[in-house]
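Why do we bother with holo predictions? Because pocket geometry can differ from the apo form. Keep that in mind while you read this record for beta-D-fucopyranose.
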Amino acid sequence: MARLDFPKDFVWGTATASYQIEGAVREDGRGPSIWDTFSHTPGKVYNNDNGDVACDSYHRYEEDIALLRQLGVNAYRFSIAWPRIFPQGTGEVNPKGLDYYRRVIDKLLEAGIEPCVTLYHWDLPQALQDRGGWNNRETIDAFVRYAETVFKAFDGRVKMWITFNELWCVSFLSNYLGVHAPGNTDLQLAVNVAHHGLVAHGLAVRRFRELGIRGQIGITHNLSWTEPYTTKPEDLEAARRLRAWNNEWFMEPVLKGTYPQFLVDWFRSAQGVEVPIQPGDMETIAQPIDFIGINFYTGNYGRYKKGEGLFHCEEVQVGFEKTFMDWNVYPEALYKVLSWVKEEYGGIPIYITENGACYEDELTPDKKVHDAKRIEYYRKHFIQCHRAIESGVPLKGYFAWSLLDNFEWAEGYRKRFGLCYTDYETLARYPKDSYSFYRKVIADGGLDV
Ligand code: FCB
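The structure, written out:
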């Protein structure tokens, strides 16, 4: 048996997102978001579930914070719903929206838990979507106005800020693959959305510095790993394209001020798609940030196959265990991603802002959930985190996804990622075995393996 100790100042947290947990979608002046529209459109979400009630955290946040306190985390990542602050996206601030997050932040601080705020976790005000959403550069200005309003409101109390969660999902998953709101299937549109999101990120960071807001600011990308199945050049290139689409397309602009040129060329020649770069955009996007957030869930093996997807790359099944999302359990890929970030982008501090697993949980009559597979998933990923730290990767913290089962976007409520089980009939929360496991890891500052 070996003992894996994490650094004393390592940040242990959990993560959630506004639309996935809050409910109360019509309360206190909140305006509709694209996720209200999407989830109320029949056929878009499994079982036609929606976030109207979700986990009702809007009313039960004190209970959630009590769960966090018992878990022993020192940080909690949550997102602010833009349509609570500006119900129409722009215009007048809704003070009741700010009040809600003020209450949450105060309670967290009282409990000794650092709030980590994500500004955009996908709930774009519908009014902005009606004018083109992220395809329209006016949305960028609206975002900066929203960001600065929130920065000023919580300056000094929130020390860790994330501009965007997963621009790959915001752009390609939502506007090219059509799986998430607003559900478009247009590659040029998706590339525009990604670019405008990046510009909005850069402008918000610039504003953060100009205002002298205290604390750190960064962005969260969902990175994954496609390992080439063979060393044949065509397989190497196919895997590289897929990786670059997931990773470099978002990492390079933010951290180097460029797009990966080979992919720009590929988009242009294979798809007739251009990146809508305006003068000054790349400098704006590359504003220095304090950390990079990584959401990591899975990886795969890929090889060349003509006509397969955008990049002629097909996944090869090599016998990985799968979660209930059908995602491969591939913990070494986390190590590969972390090492790659260090190699490619130097010493930028890294936080894993999401990692976790979905399994079919069963609540026993005495309200327990024996989620041994989830524990195994976490254990294996902690081992890789530790391995990365040992090899010199500046990994500063880890946020488990998620504190509680919640509205899993297009999958509705059937896909559970929580450390706590949510009973959607009663809205009671029941800590699972994985919660106790994580609590012990945090309390011990590490684990025996
Ligand atoms: C990520 C999202 C998060 C959650 C997990 C499972 O892509 O950021 O909201 O749904 O996946």
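The first strand starts at residue 3 and ends at 5.
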